[in-house]
Amino acid sequence: MKTYGLSLPGSVYSGEDSISKIADILRANGTRHPVLFTTEGIRQTGLLDLVLDVIPQECGEPAVLDDLAVEPTYGEVQSVVDRCNALEADMLIAVGGGSVIDATKLVSLLINSSVTVKDLLDDPLAARKTVKVICVPTTAGTGAEATPNAIVAVPEKELKVGIVNPEMISDYVILDSRTTKNLPRSIAASTGVDALCHAVECFTSNKANPISDCFALRALEMIMKNIVPACDDRDALEAKEQMLIASFFAGIAITASGTTAVHALSYPLGGKYHIAHGVANAMLLTPVMRFNQPVIGDKLAEAYDRCFEPDGTLTAEQKADRIITRMEEIVSHLNIPTSLKEFNVPAEDLEGLVASGMDVRRLLDNNMREVTADDARAIYLQVM
Questions:
Q1: How many CA atoms lie within 13 A of 80 on its CB side?
Q2: Among candidate residues 139, 156, 180, the one where a domain is terminated
Q3: What's the total number of domains in the chain?
Q4: 308-365: per-residue pLDDT in tens?
Q5: pTM recorded for the entire structure
Q6: In terms of residue numbers, what domain contains 40?
Q7: Which of 51, 68, 169, 175 would disulfide-bridge 14, Cβ 3.0–4.6 Å?
Q8: Is there a single domain that holds both residue 228 and residue 343?
Q9: Are residues 172 and 198 both part of a single domain?
């Protein structure tokens, strides 16, 4: 019998005005020097004010680091760590998408530590958390608030690398749909499809198990039913809340299982060409699912029955085909690029992509169908 487990954030708050819980959290921890992590773009939208307005007076004026890089390199994250060492932080609050949350989780391990981010690339378990973290996701996509993972770019390898350390599980998570209400459609779409990839990959992973399946299937059902209205209608708050919770569930599925070849082959696209993570995943979703279909057909059929009205007239193969087709339709409807030509990726870069993608063994080993270099080449050619 296989063994499996699940690690969850310490406390999760969702629903109307859940951001106000931050005040209770800070008081309960005796916080005096909170540090907020965000981006200038998020600050300009006024989202950061939702958090600043509930910081108790006894915490004083919180420090705000609002110049975090989008999809940062390990060196850029290290510079944030170095700046935080002088702030005497006793609580870190991440207000943003996956990049902000991942950077904050890494900082929580490395404040006043001799260990660096680069050290964690070689030994992810070399550091332990020294400061607690509150995560307030502003996208319904990455699920970073639920995972022990942090993604950083490694420029010298032209690759993104995942650092996995169980200490990076968040202490507190706030899921308040107001944070995603005004998200630009393109970002809502790419991050939403990222969550879709998390759900279906974790459900069809070699590491899938009864615990991960519970969260992955529910996330997949919620995403398939809500992603289009959540992206198309700014006022569809119910759909947006469903997507925010689904993204969190899919993040839990990552923690209990793991993503597969979609993510593995997307990492070089972000590392070398700086293609947004969700866009890179969206490009590869259908090609990888079609490649995997011969060995994951029954799982996809089960997912079909969960996401749509069960249809006893369809075979398992037909159900698998239809759910992949529906995913393809969603990507098309959301106007997410599906060709590397749109990013001026030259055909002569193909072999470099194959070599880099095949290096992501941590995720390729999760794929239920073995991926050879020839297979990776054929998949990349479909999006070249």
A1: 32
A2: 180
A3: 2
A4: 987 889 999 999 999 999 999 999 999 999 999 999 999 999 999 999 999 999 999 9
A5: 0.95
A6: 11-180
A7: 175
A8: yes
A9: no
